[in-house]
Specification:
Helix content: 25-40%
Radius of gyration: 22 Å
Order of helices and strands: EHEHEHEEHEHEEHEEEEEEEEEEHEEEHH
Distance between the termini: 43 Å
Length: 410
Amino acid sequence: MNTRANTAVIGAGVVGLLTAWQLRLAGHHVAVIAPDIAQDASYAAAGMLAPISEVQYGQDELWPIMTASRTEYPQLLATLSRATDVPTGYRENGTLLIAADRSDRDAVSELAVLQREHGMEVTALTSSTLRRREPALAPGLSKGWDVPSDHQIDPRQLVAAVRAALEADLDPQDFPDAGEPAQWLTATVTAVEEATEAPGHASWFTVTTDDDVARPFSAVVLVPGLGYAGIRGLPETSPLDLRPIHGDVLRLRVNPAQLMPGETHILDATVRAKVNGRSVYLVPRADGGLVIGASSREDSLTGTHAGSVQELLSDAVAVLPGVKDMELTEITTRARPGTPDERPYLGPLRPGLVVSTGYSRHGILLAPLAARLGAALLDHSRTDTPPRAAPLSAADEELLASMSLTRSRS
């Protein structure tokens, strides 16, 4: 097989890495080009796989994308487990929706009604049931709802697993069509242009990096997050409406003194709560960690916002008083690429050149679908080689139409 990578994936967040994995499974020899691996939005993400709990008013066209991607996680995880022993951090621990007081209860209750109207499993819990399920929750919480199918994955562990799979020598019996192990190029892409001389291919591109080196590739997937606007050449012909949505995320660790013998955590389910009209989530990790988040800012402050940290801790303590006795181990702030309608951009710029960005707060949830469709689009958009990826179904085509690069200008 050709020892030079022929397909470039630009960007190494979870969506980019999984896209590279799907391409490798289809036989591509992939080079992943990024300044670092999953250190931006993916690094901060809590990893809630929660298409039900994430439902918001006015997002009817986003719900099918979220639910479709959630159904693809089991197959993705099974495939990764055959390629590597590195754990993915997946947990089927369910989700509880919590309202702290009466006004919060009305807001969450109305949303629960909307969720059930769309066929989602959301069950109201009595106070006594809620206390039995999670005795460490604060007494006097107004109301709770059970969402048993919304689970979680640790994005940092998932990144490690995907990276190991990309680098592994895959068993040809399990992966008969797979390409060679991925190559890694630590650089920032500054331009993607059509090559002036295409060496034997109808589609051929030149990818230039910040060290002023230009490299040829027969196919390219652009998964650069907010970096899309900084890439010259072909991306300039199709500007996308992306904006930074900043989020502050806290990571804590349970104090051993808080645990009874045999316990590893004071919280079992993921909790998504409304406190004084603000949203807060608490995601327990199997190793005793706790991720707290939900701040969302569109201001000029790129660093951590002190007020957001204060509110997150205050609201988390209001729901789970034991938070105040935990060790605060990390505060992370990252910008996520948002779009005007909250739907991502996924589509071809040219035959053999696909763009995948704008996943906002839903990047981890949407990653399996985005990766599969991005890889399939790349193969099916080319005219010089037969497609190696599976055909796109009618449902796939409908989802892609809702994520079209040109929908905002149509």
